[in-house]
Amino acid sequence: MKTDSKLSYLTKRIIAVLFVLLLWQAAAMFIKQRILLVSPIDVLLRLTTIWQVEGFFNSIGFTCLHIAAGFFLGLILGTALSFAASRFEWIDILLWPFVITFKTVPVASFVVICLIWLSAGNLSVFISFLVVFPVVYQSLLEGLKNKDKDMDEMSKLFNIHGIRKLRAVTLPQIKPQLISACSISAGMAWKAGVAAEIIGTPNGSVGKMIYISKMYLDTDDLLAWTVILVLISVLFEKIFMWCLKKLID
């Protein structure tokens, strides 16, 4: 029964993807302007040859490394500070203006400001960090504040401290918040990081490749690079979430 349910879920998603592709194909055939919109078939054909572009793998590696670095930096710092803020209220109060600023200021504004302080090459790391940190911090802080106090008292009674308490008492209680925060912020990190690269155009990045495609009105390349980024982003999120669930289960 469970296998049938999974197959049904997968079938529905495949149908949804095919529906979107059909709409895309119909729109391309209706517009008949390759500069405005190319068909999914044209994009698929371009995907079979785009890896031959000079610097293709270096660009993929550059972008993946920088965005992943920003994501993990935001995850680690957000987690550490959420634990500290749950214990010391003054830390939460001091961090509140920064968290609100990171959440509300548009990414484009941050990118332009940060270009004054940072090199274009490091921009995607910092911007990815900025969007991941508040999501992780606030989600985990909320979970930690709503922990079952009786469980903490029980851990003291049975002399459970440190790593043992973290794994046996704390993690099971904040697991839903942690999984939700990581799932949301992983996708946000890629969107913000690539947006930063497109604006900052660091050499050897996917963002610069997209910017060049836009300059030359090369819609085939533009959409092909976009598809590649979507696939990498989804793959990154799936692998990371699988590892995270294995780690905290």
Set out the fold topology.
Elements lengths: L1 H30 L8 H8 L8 H32 L1 H16 L2 H11 L2 H26 L3 H9 L4 H39 L5 H10 L3 H30 L1
Protein architecture, described:
There is one protein chain. The chain is an all-alpha fold. Helix content is 85%, strand content 0%. It contains 10 helices and no strands. The chain has helices at residues 2-31, 40-47, 56-87, 89-104, 107-117, 120-145, 149-157, 162-200, 206-215, 219-248. Helix 3 (56-87) packs parallel to helix 6 (120-145) and helix 5 crosses helix 6. The longest helix is centred in the last third of the chain and has 39 residues, at 162-200.
The class by helix and strand makeup works out as mainly alpha
Report how far apart the termini are.
24 Å
How many β-strands, per DSSP? Answer: 0
Unreliable stretches (pLDDT < 50, length at least 5) are: none
Gyration radius, in Å: 22 Å
Mean pLDDT: 86
Shape: globular
How many DSSP H or I helices? 10
Sheet having the most strands: none
Proportion of residues in β-strands: under 5%
The ordered H/E elements are: HHHHHHHHHH
User: How would you name the oligomeric state of the polypeptide chains in this document?
Assistant: single chain
Give the % helix. Answer: over 70%
What attributes characterize this protein structure?
249 residues; mainly alpha; 0% strand; globular
Short description:
By secondary structure, the protein is mostly helical. It has helices spanning 2-31, 40-47, 56-87, 89-104, 107-117, 120-145, 149-157, 162-200, 206-215, 219-248. The longest helix has 39 residues, at 162-200.
